[in-house]
Design a protein that fits this description.
Layout (H helix, E strand, L loop, with lengths): L19 E5 L6 H7 L1 H7 L4 E5 L3 E3 L6 H4 L5 E3 L12 H21 L6 E7 L1 H22 L19 E5 L6 E2 L11 E2 L23 E6 L5 H10 L6 E6 L9 H17 L20
Parallel strand pairs: 1-2, 1-5, 5-6, 6-9, 7-8, 9-10
Antiparallel strand pairs: 3-4
Helix pairs in contact: 2-7
Length: 294
Amino acid sequence: MPTPGSKIPSTIPDSSHLPRILCLHGGGVNAAIFKAQSRSLIRHLQHSFRLVWVDGPFFCDPHTDIIQVYGSYAPFRRWLRWLPEHAEIDAETCIDEIGYAIRTAIEDDDRDGGQGEWVGLMGFSQGAKLSASLLLEQQARESKAVREGKTEWDTGPIGIPGLNWRFGVLLAGRAPLSNLNPSLLGSHALVSAAGLSEGFQFVEEIDDAAILRQPTLHVHGMADAGLHLHRRLYKEYCEQGSAMLVEWEGAHRIPIKSDTVERVVGAIYEIAEHNEVEVTWTVDRRPSWTFATP
């Protein structure tokens, strides 16, 4: 039964025409696990968005947190290196593999009937880091086009013309961001796509090129061991006024309890509407939802 604040319609709509969100899993899991873990969010979001779940390009061992429940969901995947035992790869190849995985998922969904505009990225953990990094890379290409007086910008690593991500939903996303376009982004505040983000030596001041101005929603679990890095992403790598924040009393996982889910879902609707994406509200609006200052 829906909770008192829930207004979930009884009929699931045909998603073919709905605006699309690309969903990027964390490290050591895969798209199927991320989808299963997000079931409480999906109950709401499927009435406003077509959610497309993407597998990362690189195989790896399962994350220790998911073995007990999802140990049979192999193969497990990652987007980026974070452990020394992960095979070394040059930055250009890593970026190309990430772009190919995402481009393939987009083209597959087009063939499966998806017609809506691609409007957002939603990622958990490493997938959140990648989502924010993709937004920063798009921002750099857009800035370059403005400087050159062009009305359209280059396609970037995904290689599909016309993609314009309007917002990102970052569930437990850690700093630093990854550099997905070294020819445009030379900031030392970014980690190379070939590098290990664990143990990254943060610079004293984040330069403007590494600051994300695209709209983002950050969801932080107060019991998450990586909370200090989530806060660095929110406070240091995002421009004031561009980011929203939802905090909840949980660890490194995706919320499933009704009250927290409804807060997160409501904030997603808020950021979508703020960026001219029409949604069907399945929760009551809460006046406390605003674009927070990092």
